[in-house]
């Protein structure tokens, strides 16, 4: 069995309503996915996190390295792609291109061997995870606080046990919005905040001290990912757990985060940081330092299901008879591509999402949906 074809598709969808966070606005979903087909017709799907058109170019660059190769040797193929790109981009978008191919190869491997990806990764430590709703972004509104409160209450009604809101407008505005959300959802729902590295160390410390009283589950990307020492120092200035890693790539970047004691929670993005193969290596590094992992997840059902399998395989830290539930990020912002691309649809029951037990990622991609959202021709 050999890899016969690698196809990339940039899916795009104009949003009905623009939303924004501390850095810029989203008016369009634009996502790169990849389809790998063997010479006997087996298919695997992957996804890259980042600028879709650049990821597509990166995938096309490394495609000749894997054509004609055995898809079951996915880690060998990962290394070939890594070596090819090492001189040009030790971090960033080319790592996301490798990630997309790696996820597709794991999906393909699972389908060939008729096993779930998480089983092939070594086994499932859990059969379900707790999704937290990512939403509560900023938008143009006469009363942003009231709009966010209404959205937060919707998540509670849907059965979410946790949610994450955006901060980063200003320290004073953030304090007021966090207070309003906490009062609206009550004390039983876990609440996290994410500034997308909007703040200086001084501002992040000021905001942290002010919102500690609202029982914040973690503060994500409080400062620039370039300032490892600021992450470390902020941890000494607040009782709120500090999370980060969305902007890191490969085990080497995460090694720097871990060695500098930057975070309480590591947020590896599987579709950006090196794929499932590299995420497993990163999890081993985190394990040696007792650091929790909650993956960053964005994009389609492909990325979401890759994260489900990754979390299923994570060892409980610390080990005990009744380990705590683990979380997965579940983006709830407008995304018609995510809602229609894969089946079965993502289903939350009693605040949990089950780990897929079907072969590969446990999903099928609707190629008619690929046609609808892509300018490329799907054969």
TrEMBL record:
The cofactor required is: Mg(2+)
Q: Name one GO biological process term.
A: carbohydrate catabolic process
The protein's name = Mandelate racemase/muconate lactonizing enzyme family protein
What keywords were assigned to this record?
Magnesium, Metal-binding
Q: Would I find Metal-binding among this entry's keywords? A: yes
Molecular functions per Gene Ontology: hydro-lyase activity; magnesium ion binding; racemase and epimerase activity
- Fetch the SUPFAM superfamilies from UniProt: Enolase C-terminal domain-like (SSF51604), Enolase N-terminal domain-like (SSF54826)
Sequence ranges assigned to domain Mandelate racemase/muconate lactonizing enzyme C-terminal in this UniProt record: 145-241
InterPro entries, sorted: Enolase-like_C_sf, Enolase-like_N, Enolase_C-like, Mandelate_racemase_C, Mandelate_racemase_N_dom, RHMD-like
The organism encoding this protein is Maribacter algarum (ex Zhang et al. 2020)
């Amino acid at each position: 069995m050999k890899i016969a074809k690698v196809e990339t598709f940039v899916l795009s969808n104009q949003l009905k309503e623009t939303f924004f966070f501390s850095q810029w606005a989203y008016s369009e979903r634009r996502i790169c996915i990849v389809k790998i087909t063997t010479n006997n017709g087996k298919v695997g799907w992957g996804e890259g996190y980042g600028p879709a058109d650049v990821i597509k170019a990166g995938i096309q660059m490394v495609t000749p390295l894997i054509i004609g190769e055995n898809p079951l040797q996915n880690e060998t193929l990962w290394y070939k792609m890594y070596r090819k790109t090492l001189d040009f981009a030790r971090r960033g978008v080319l790592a996301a291109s490798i990630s997309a191919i790696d996820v597709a190869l794991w999906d393909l491997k699972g389908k060939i061997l008729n096993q779930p990806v998480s089983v092939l990764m070594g086994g499932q430590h859990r059969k379900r995870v707790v999704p937290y709703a990512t939403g509560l972004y900023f938008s143009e509104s006469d009363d942003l606080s009231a709009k966010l409160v209404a959205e937060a209450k919707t998540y509670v009604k849907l059965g979410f046990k946790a949610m994450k809101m955006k901060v980063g407008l200003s320290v004073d505005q953030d304090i007021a919005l966090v207070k309003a959300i906490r009062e609206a959802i009550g004390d039983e729902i876990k609440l996290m905040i994410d500034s997308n590295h909007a703040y200086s160390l001084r501002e992040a410390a000021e905001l942290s001290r002010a919102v500690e009283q609202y029982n914040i589950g973690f503060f994500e990307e409080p400062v620039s990912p370039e300032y490892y020492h600021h992450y470390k120092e902020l941890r000494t200035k607040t009782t709120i757990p500090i999370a980060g890693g969305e902007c890191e790539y490969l085990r080497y970047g995460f090694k720097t985060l871990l060695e500098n004691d930057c975070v309480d929670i590591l947020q590896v993005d599987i579709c950006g940081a090196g794929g499932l193969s590299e995420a497993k290596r990163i999890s081993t590094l985190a394990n040696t330092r007792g650091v929790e992992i909650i993956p960053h997840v964005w994009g389609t059902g492909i990325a979401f299901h890759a994260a489900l399998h990754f979390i299923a395989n994570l060892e409980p830290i610390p080990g005990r008879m009744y380990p705590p539930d683990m979380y997965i990020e579940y983006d709830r912002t407008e995304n018609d591509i995510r809602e229609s691309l894969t089946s079965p649809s993502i289903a939350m029951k009693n605040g949990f999402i089950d780990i897929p037990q079907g072969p590969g990622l446990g999903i099928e991609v609707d190629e008619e949906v690929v046609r609808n959202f892509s300018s490329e021709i799907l054969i």
